[in-house]
Specification:
The protein is an alpha+beta fold. Helix content is 36%, strand content 20%. The chain is built from 13 helices and 21 strands. The strands form 7 sheets. Strands 6-5-4-1-7-8 form a 6-stranded mixed β-sheet, with helices on both faces. A 3-stranded antiparallel β-sheet has the order 9-12-13. A hairpin with a 2-residue loop joins strand 12 and strand 13. The protein binds glycine (GLY) and manganese (II) ion (2 copies). The site of glycine has 7 residues, from loops.
Length: 431
């Protein structure tokens, strides 16, 4: 609990004056009639509390240099606990989570305005939770109306402040992310031995989820993409319900969530264990782009350096194969690679798979710094409607790793899954 307490203290350190921060937790989302989706706590809320019950709100008040944490949580209720399981209640929030004070969540409208007494600015995540903006306005209006003669309270957005804290991972976060990456990497390794032509994509998806859960990552960090053949050219393909044909490549983008932290890995491998010549030629371009881009993830380099490198390697490779016509500089300038490589090289990864944290500061792209984790995931996608020689059509390839920026370089957290085509082929013989 110390870690969360320290985070709450650190968050208010850079916010001047007497302030309050209010963070809503997640609510249960309905899936159909009275059944819910599995509960997932809001990442900011969890980052600052470690508390995993729905319908909760946390408040941090910093007045005259003293910080207090206050929770509003589901009340103890014997009957509800028989149906839905244990609740900590306000007392548990204090004793087990280090909060200074805690109340039942149904008391929030009554109590919160009074708690804002003497506060000059209220921070909360703007425009993120349906209905929450209105609640904050209501609470601050009520607080302001109590003393018409004092200075009115301001309202400010906290999302950027927390986002840029979360961007730099501390050692406890890195340990958890490494574990998430290890579980996912192992699932990819096992899947390469498991997959055979004739299987349905759904069966492979289930295999990954089983491997994740067996090793402690019960939920995927995002909906897995299990895309055979040309399905891989649909970037967010999630139907995962087609038969995998002999001769198809299989693109699997799947990563587990472990203790609230994501992992995000893509590998593309031949269903029958052997790349065709055309598949291999495209694969090797993506692999070269991926390796060169991973290499550029280091402290002091710009966050867009891997992007530019990947664009150039892919443009050059596609020119060599006659898929793009022209010379490298002109074609790169024109952006003709975008017909085949239409997404960006990667994104921050942490509690959210597409994690928070700025990419730009005052109009300029920021530089990599120690503790940041980014994915590196170039791809080439040639759909059957592309204006290219038929032999290239239907090939979709992406290779994705999760890369930690270290003091003097980087650590690829997912490189235990082979990317080398010969290694993949030999692993696939091991079934
Ligand atoms: N799996 C989502 C992504 O790669 O961004
Ligand atoms: Mn990704
Ligand atoms: Mn991915």
């Amino acid at each position: 609990m110390k870690i969360y307490e320290e985070r709450r203290l650190k968050l208010t350190e850079n916010l001047s004056g007497d302030i309050a921060v209010i963070i809503p937790g997640s609510v249960l989302a309905n899936r159909s009639n009275d059944t819910a989706y599995p509960f997932r706590q809001d990442s900011n809320f969890y980052y600052l509390s470690g508390f995993n019950e729905p319908d909760s709100t946390l408040m941090i008040i910093n007045k005259s240099g003293k910080t207090n944490s206050i929770g509003f949580v589901p009340k103890k209720d014997k009957l509800k606990e028989i149906w839905d399981g244990f609740r900590h209640g306000p007392e548990g929030m204090k004793s087990d989570f280090g909060f200074n004070d805690a109340f039942n969540n149904d008391e929030i409208d009554e109590l919160l305005p009074d708690l804002l007494d003497g506060v000059s600015c209220v921070y909360y995540p703007f425009g993120k939770v349906e209905g929450f903006d209105q609640k904050v306005i209501k609470w601050t209006k009520k607080a302001n109306s109590k003393d018409r003669h004092s200075k009115k309270m301001e309202i400010a957005d906290i999302s950027k402040v927390i986002g840029n804290k979360r961007l730099i991972k501390d050692s406890s976060e890195i340990n958890i992310i490494e574990k998430a990456c290890k579980i996912s990497a192992n699932a990819h390794l096992e899947a390469m031995k498991f997959v055979k032509p004739g299987m349905n994509e759904a069966e492979v998806e289930a295999f990954y989820l089983y491997e994740f859960a067996k090793n402690g990552g019960r939920f995927p960090a995002y909906n897995p993409i299990v895309a055979s053949g040309e399905n891989a050219c649909v970037l967010h393909y999630v139907e995962n319900n087609q038969v995998i044909n002999d001769g198809d490549l299989l693109l699997v983008d799947a990563g587990c969530e472990y203790e609230m932290y994501a992992s995000d890995i893509t590998r593309t491998f031949p269903a029958n264990g052997k790349f065709s010549d055309e598949q291999l030629q495209i694969y090797n371009i993506v692999l070269e782009a991926q390796k060169a881009s991973v290499d550029a993830v280091r402290k002091g380099n710009g966050v867009m350096d891997p992007q530019t490198i990947s664009e150039k390697v892919i443009t050059e490779g596609l020119i060599d194969l006659g898929i793009i016509k022209g010379n490298l500089e002109e074609e790169h300038e024109k952006g003709s690679f975008k017909d085949f490589y239409m997404h960006k090289i990667g994104h921050w990864m942490g509690m959210d798979v597409h994690d928070v944290g700025d990419y730009m500061h005052e109009g300029e792209f920021i530089k990599f710094d120690e503790g940041m984790i980014t994915t590196i995931e170039p791809g080439i996608y040639i759909s059957s409607t592309s204006d290219v020689d038929d032999k290239w059509k239907g090939i979709g390839i992406r290779i994705e790793d999760d890369v930690l920026v270290t003091k003097d370089g980087n650590k690829n957290l997912t490189d235990t899954v082979p990317t080398d085509p010969a290694e993949i082929e030999s692993l696939m013989q091991e079934s």
